[in-house]
Amino acid sequence: MSTSDRIRFSHLRAYGRSPAHGLYARTHDMAPTAAMQRGTGLHAMLFKTKPVVGYDGTRRGKDWEAFKADHPKDEILPATDFAKAEAMVASVRACKLAQPFLEGVYEETLAFTWYGMNCRVTPDVRGRDFVTELKSCPNASPERFIWHSLRMAYHAQLKWQMTGMEIITLNPVKSAYVIAVEYNAPFVVQVFKATEGALQVGARQLAAWMERLKVCEASNAYPAYTETIAPLDVPQDVELDYGDEND
Predict the structure, then answer these.
(1) 105 with 125: CB under 8 angstroms?
(2) What is the Cα–Cα distance from 39 to 25, expressed in whole angstroms?
(3) How far apart are CA 191 and CA 141, in angstroms?
(4) pLDDT tens for residues 34-48?
(5) Tens digits of per-residue pLDDT, 195-244?
(6) Which entry of 35, 60, 62, 133 is 20 to 30 Å from 162 by CA?
(7) What b/e sequence results for 18-40 when a residue is b if at least 16 CB atoms lie within 10 Å of its CB, and e otherwise?
(8) What's the chain look like in SS3?
(9) Structural contact between residues 110 and 168, judged by C-beta atoms closer than 8 angstroms
(10) Quick one: 117 exposed, middle or buried, by C-beta within 10 A (0-12, 13-18, 19+)?
């Protein structure tokens, strides 16, 4: 089995939304969004895993095709995103708090078995006894980033990285970090350490998602959110703000 066929964190997180979303994630390659491409460029620049170039022009026509032909192995970013990625990399490299957690193996894919399933994990940084994920975001303040992290399930992603590392290396992974860098000037960097409580929640979520995946794939049934009519209720104890219907 190739590593591309193995279960990734993105698959499990999709199963956490619904089995239908999980099936789609497992059977389709997701088209990269602009944010994903910017993040890929940031990682490639910082970790020096792939050349990154900027292109100042429209992504169609003869000029674009010629540029792609000249850079077949490069990560190509719009010129504005290229400049931002350079600034973000400079900010991360200038952050003294971040430096110890950038020392290790960069973006190496590990194949492992968990819950009897073939899985894979690619930590951004695999340290001796820690794991680090690099994230770009609009706001890295501790008060705001915690909600973004919760929505993206970074705590579960970190636990997933730790689980794969421990199974492969047979060594305990003691801590997990997120280096968050804002993608707008002044490109502020904030380092976070996952708490034990957050990692425990992540472990429970991963187990629940994996059990759902196994049941769905064994039964070949992939329902959506619910197979019943859901009530559309109104909270009675909150003051509602009626905005425009397009908000």
Answers:
(1) yes
(2) 20
(3) 10
(4) 788 889 999 999 999
(5) 999 999 999 999 999 999 999 999 999 999 988 999 998 878 766 565 55
(6) 35
(7) bbebbbebbeeeeeeeeeebbbb
(8) CCHHHCECHHHHHHHHHCHHHHHHHHHCCCCCCHHHHHHHHHHHHHHCCCCEEEECCCCCCHHHHHHHHHCCCCEEEEHHHHHHHHHHHHHHHHCCCCHHHHCCEECCCEEEEECCEEEEECCCEECCCEEEEEEEECCCCHHHHHHHHHHHCHHHHHHHHHHHHHHHHCCCCCEEEEEEEECCCCCCEEEEECCHHHHHHHHHHHHHHHHHHHHHHHHCCCCCCCCCCCCCCCCCCCCCCCCCCCC
(9) yes
(10) middle
Residue at 199: amino acid letter: L
